[in-house]
Amino acid sequence: MEKPLNGKIALVTGGTSGIGLATARELAAQGAQVFITGRRQAELDAAVATLGGSVSGIRADASVLTDLDAVYAQIAKRAGKLDILFTNAGGGDLLPLGAITEEQFDRIFGTNVRGVLFTVQKALPLLVNGASIVLSGSTAGSRGTASFSVYSASKAAVRNFARSWALDLKDRAIRVNVVSPGPIRTPGLGGLVSDDSRQGFYDFMAGQVPLGRLGEPEEVGKAVAFLASDSASYINGTELFVDGGLAQI
Fold this sequence. Notes:
This protein has helices at 18-29, 41-51, 65-78, 102-123, 149-168, 187-190, 198-208, 217-228, and strands at residues 9-13, 33-38, 55-59, 82-87, 127-136, 175-181, 239-242. It is an alpha/beta fold.
């Protein structure tokens, strides 16, 4: 049986761990040729070795525009087109109002907002008509979270990017959607707290979720692959929550 993404070329930014790595694995399993980016060469090489032959790595920082230019130059040379773009690179950390620094704001918005904008804009010449863009959102973008306002605001901006870009790209039939995970067992989630506090933090977060557990990166990867596929051909400008019900109640 033919795989649903056979012949498709995909880019996953921030693809060396967590949700990005799991999504790259899922896209490749469904037949896509996948490019991933990461800021650190050693981690990028390890991810490519783990994922196997249909995945290639390109070292890049999604907040650096010259790095993005190099990424798309390589994809143009090696594949000639792009069918699927998942803007996963990003992150954040905890600081309450009153302690927020210029450095924190610039770093988070630099990757989560500025980086996403130019990752998509610079991809436009390579994206085929009818391509699928999936932006990485978060339940934090539609809920209040103490000490997490900068990250939350950045994800709210991403949510509106999808609404606006779906209109900007309508003449090319390029779909733009957001996948918004809840608490997912990733290095990024665990890194919000100290090693000693991690299990208690995980237990607390799981207790907030109607399903009573954390999500796994693979569950988000499957949702991204769905949005990227022809099965989602009439889904555009939407936000798909993969959160166990956290933001739905």
